[in-house]
C-alpha cells in the first residue's frame, strides 16, 4: 500500500534517485541533480501556498520510503491534468495505480474538478495502463494541444517527439 504526503526539502536526495535510470527514459530524459531537486521541491511548496490553488504535488511513500512523485495541475476552473513518476525498483507492484486513485479522488473532491486528462508517450504503455486502471478512457493523440486549444502538457514528458496519447476521466 502506498500513501501520499507533501514534499519537504530534505526529500531532495530521494527525488534524485526517483528521476534516474529507466524512470526518465520517456519523461525528462535527464537525471535530476540535487540542486534541481531542491528547486523542484521549493517550487512545489510555493505552488501549494497559492490561492486559488492550481497545483498539488505529493510524494508517494511505501512505508517510509519515498518511491515517487505525483502531481495534479488545474488547467481550467474545472479541468486538471495528472502526472507521476516512480523509482524504477518500485515498478510492477500496483503502486502508481494506487497513487493515481488517491489523486483522482482528491481532484474530484478537494480540488473541485470535474474532468481530468493525462498523457503518456506512445512507447510507454505501462503509463497508459495505470491511467486505464484508474478509470481513464483513451481519447486520442495530441501534439500538446487539444481541439479546444487547451495546452495539455504532462510536465514529466518533454522533448520526446510530437505525439502523446491522451486519456480523459470524468
Ligand atoms: C509508468 C509507471 C508510473 C508505472 O508504475 P508502476 O507502479 O509500475 O505501475 P502499476 O504497477 O500500478 O501498473 C503498471 C501496469 O502497466 C503494465 N505494464 C508494465 N509494462 C508494460 C508494457 N511494457 N506494456 C504494457 N503494459 C505494461 C503492468 O502489467 C501493470 O498493469 P496490470 O496491473 O494490468 O498488470 C512507472 O513505470 C514510471 O514511473 N515510469 C517513468 C515515468 C513515467 O513514465 N511517468 C508517466 C508519464 S507522465
Your description of this structure?
This protein is of the alpha+beta class. The protein has 4 helices and 7 strands. The chain has helices at residues 12-18, 34-48, 95-108, 125-133, and strands at residues 2-6, 55-62, 65-74, 79-86, 115-120, 137-142, 164-169. A 7-stranded mixed beta sheet has the order 1-2-3-4-5-7-6, with helices on both faces. The radius of gyration is 15 Å and the shape is globular. It starts with a strand and ends with a strand. The structure holds coenzyme A (COA).
Could you give the topology of this structure?
Blueprint: E1 2-6, H1 12-18, H2 34-48, E2 55-62, E3 65-74, E4 79-86, H3 95-108, E5 115-120, H4 125-133, E6 137-142, E7 164-169
Parallel strand pairs: 4-5
Antiparallel strand pairs: 1-2, 2-3, 3-4, 5-7, 6-7
Helix pairs in contact: 1-2
Amino acid at each position: 500500500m502506498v500513501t501520499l504526503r507533501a514534499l519537504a526539502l530534505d526529500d531532495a536526495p530521494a527525488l534524485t534517485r526517483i528521476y534516474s535510470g529507466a524512470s526518465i527514459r520517456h519523461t525528462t530524459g535527464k537525471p535530476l541533480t540535487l540542486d534541481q531537486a531542491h528547486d523542484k521541491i521549493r517550487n512545489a511548496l510555493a505552488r501549494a501556498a497559492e490561492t486559488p490553488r492550481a497545483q498539488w504535488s505529493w510524494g508517494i511513500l511505501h512505508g517510509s520510503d519515498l518511491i515517487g512523485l505525483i502531481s495534479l495541475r488545474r488547467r481550467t476552473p474545472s479541468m486538471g491534468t495528472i502526472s507521476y513518476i516512480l523509482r524504477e525498483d518500485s515498478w510492477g507492484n500496483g503502486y502508481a495505480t494506487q497513487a493515481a486513485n488517491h489523486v483522482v479522488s482528491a481532484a474530484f473532491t478537494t480540488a473541485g474538478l470535474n474532468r481530468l486528462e493525462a498523457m503518456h508517450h506512445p512507447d510507454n504503455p505501462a503509463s497508459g495502463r495505470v491511467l486505464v486502471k484508474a478509470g481513464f478512457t483513451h481519447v486520442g493523440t495530441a501534439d500538446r494541444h487539444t481541439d479546444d486549444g487547451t495546452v495539455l502538457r504532462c510536465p514529466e514528458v518533454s522533448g520526446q517527439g510530437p505525439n502523446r496519447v491522451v486519456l480523459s476521466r470524468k
